[in-house]
Automatic annotation (TrEMBL):
Top EC group: isomerase
EC number: 5.1.3.15
Biological process, per Gene Ontology: carbohydrate metabolic process
Protein's organism: Quillaja saponaria (Soap bark tree)
Single GO molecular function: glucose-6-phosphate 1-epimerase activity
Catalysis performed (reactions): alpha-D-glucose 6-phosphate = beta-D-glucose 6-phosphate
Record protein name field: glucose-6-phosphate 1-epimerase
Catalytic site positions: 157, 261
Signal peptide: none
């Protein structure tokens, strides 16, 4: 169906009321609701749904370059392109029995080949599970016919909706090394207990576990992020100053969001022609009493 500004949007629904919304523009999830119709992802009230701007919120796909450290636009071009529905995908390992899902595909374009001279097929499967968990599976294949390999970095730039960032804890990144984007990407080691937030944070945690928990104390809700093939995790909150500097971000909205991004940043991925890389993330929202120890 049509969303904002005539951009095509697909809605995934599940019998108990869970739902997700995906724009073909950017292959971007913009909404993920639980069975009570509560929105679980952050989407800025000032988000711009007009190419070539990336939509501020949901789950932007960062490919073939995470960050602006490289020759491409910040976070690469995939999130600013029109994807198409992949009606005949090769078999995905992610099974879809009694799940709502959509398969999207993005391929190299004439235009992009000028800045990134490679042929590729990027297949994205978005699945809404029976318990409302949202899974994104990416398969990126090098289809170069000139024998050339290519190298890329990647992230699911997930914006979680939280009640109050100063009442949020993240578990799973304790004692890990991270690159601090606010300190020239210098390497530091995280302290030994859960991470809390009282100022701008922009860190790439390295060699992170497959499971990370985000505890929203006020709403008694825990987000659990599980990932495969994505060794790093970016943690970002712009806080007040940076938020004001972003035209598509409300001044106070930083209080109600936190980005935890399953990523491949420290060690870029290199594919030879014919090779395929897979990266998967699954997010769920559980009552905090259930906690993150599971
Ligand atoms: O998520 C980390 C980050 O790289 C931050 O440095 C900040 O730039 C953020 O991404 C948002 O980037 P964007 O291009 O979407 O405004």
């Amino acid at each position: 169906c049509m969303g904002v500004n005539g951009l095509e949007k697909v809605i995934l629904t599940e019998v108990r009321g869970f739902s997700a919304e995906v724009y073909l523009y950017g292959g971007q999830v913009t909404s993920w609701k639980n069975e009570h119709r509560e929105e679980l992802l952050f989407l800025s009230n000032k988000a711009i749904f007009k190419p070539p701007k990336a939509i501020r919120g949901g789950i932007p796909i960062c490919f073939p370059q995470f960050s602006n450290h490289g020759s491409l636009e910040q976070h690469g071009f995939a999130r600013n392109r029109f994807w198409t529905e992949d009606l005949d995908p090769p078999p995905f390992a992610t099974n879809t029995t009694n799940k709502a899902f959509i398969d999207l595909i993005l391929k190299n374009s004439e235009e992009d080949s000028k800045i990134w001279p490679h042929r590729y097929e990027f297949r994205l499967r978005i699945t809404l599970g029976p318990g409302g968990d949202l899974m994104l599976t990416s398969r990126i294949r090098n289809t170069n016919t000139d024998g050339k390999s290519f190298t890329f970095t990647f992230a699911y730039h997930t914006y979680f909706s939280v009640t109050d960032i100063s009442e949020v804890r993240v578990e799973g990144l304790e004692t890990l090394d991270y690159l601090d984007n606010l300190k020239n990407r210098e390497r530091f080691t995280e302290q030994g207990d859960a991470i809390t937030f009282e100022s701008e944070v922009d860190k790439v945690y390295l060699s992170t576990p497959t499971k990370i928990a985000i505890l929203d104390h006020e709403r008694k809700r825990t987000f659990v992020l599980r990932k495969d093939g994505l060794p790093d995790a970016v943690v970002w909150n712009p806080w007040d100053k940076k938020a004001k500097a972003l035209s598509d971000f409300g001044d106070d909205e930083y209080k109600h969001m936190l980005c935890i991004e399953a990523a491949c940043v420290e060690k870029p991925i290199t594919l030879k022609p014919g090779e395929e890389w897979k990266g998967r993330q699954e997010i769920s929202a559980v009552p905090s009493s259930y906690c993150s120890g599971q």
